[in-house]
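Recall the central idea of this unit: under ordinary conditions, the amino acid sequence of a chain determines the structure it adopts. In this exercise we apply that idea directly, starting from the sequence alone.
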Amino acid sequence: MIRIIPSITVMKGRTTRLTQGDFQREKVYDQSPLEVAKQFEDAGVSQIHLVDLEGAKRGASINFDVLESIVGHTNLEISFSGGLYTDGDIIKAYEYGASNIIAATIAAYRPEFFTSWIVSYGRERITLGADSINGKIAIRGWQKDTAIDLYEHIEYFFSRGLKYVKTTDIPKHGAMTGPSLALYEEILKRFPGICLLASGGVRSMEDIEKLQDLGVWGVVFGKAFYEGVLSLKDLERFLVSA
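Accordingly, the structure predicted from this sequence is:
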């Protein structure tokens, strides 16, 4: 059964969402990150993806206090991302209660160093963030393009023990136009056994069912929930089964 992993994106301590990674298209929601997290937990969700958007943009995590608050008031497993560049950053994230970290920029800049994290902290606790535009990796909160090929990037770490990868087709992010099924199918074909977290474009139960049929390990979504297009009631079948 596919894992349901709602995303909470934090900017200045508030729950927010971007469309296609564009900071000029930010929308702030009334509920605090903690209120949203409790809502997910009450519905049966066991894991969330907490994104420190400021940290991703600035290159240094900012919202550890939000992570600490959610950990202190829920039993959720939290995958934390945004501005994680050093061993100190990871240690701090774990100290504040993260179950797993997702890192993207450091993997692009210093692949050997990121590989050392997989070895040092364990492949269950490190996820590669491999988000792309037209097949090329984008970093620093998707504000900087690179010439790094998506598949070559994943291959480098997969051959060195990587178990988890989160991939967002950035033009799909927040657009609710459906996930990039062909992209995810190709990743699963090239990297047998990898645990793929698919992100971007999810708008319906049918989308999630299609991702499950492909063999995707987990689905990360946000805007469809916040805009009321996809409700926790809709997800009940997956959550109960999980």
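The longest strand covers residues 3-11.
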